[in-house]
Predict the 3D structure of the following.
Amino acid sequence: MAGRIYAIVGLKRRLTLVVSFLLQALCIFIAAILVQTDTVPEHNATDAFVLIAIPFLAAQSGAQVATAKGLGFTELPTTVLTSTYNDLASDTKLLAWDNPKRDRRVASVVLMILGGICGAWLCKGTETFTIVLWLGAAIKLVLALSWLLFPAEPEK
């Protein structure tokens, strides 16, 4: 759905990116609030109420993928690493000195692993995963506002 909206309003416009990232942050904030208020039980994965938060996180994830692809970073996964592993393994220029796509793929693998380690560390240290949702929403909010720092390109 996000991809279709981007096609209509133009993804590479600053306002589109700001609004998109704000809506993505809102989705994560909603999921965090649902867990924080025990509407979604944190420690009972068999409870059907757990499913309430999933659409919000799925919408955010889908918009994130559509944004990355729309900005031209098709080699960067933003949700899973399977395609990146495949792309790295089949890269005919894997050992070439100048290979920016390979560099971005390797960086994405390393950063996803580090993010998982940090998230697990936060969950273990606080004994709750709500902190990870709040942190993710805060990071997404900072990213949304950071788009305002880039100068606008002149209209053509």
Remarks:
- The mean pLDDT is 82.
